[in-house]
Amino acid sequence: MCRSIKTLREPFTSDVTEEEVHAAALQYVRKVSGFRAPAKHNQEAFDEAVEAVTAATRELLGSLVVRGAG
Question: How many domains does the chain have?
Answer without folding.
Answer: 1
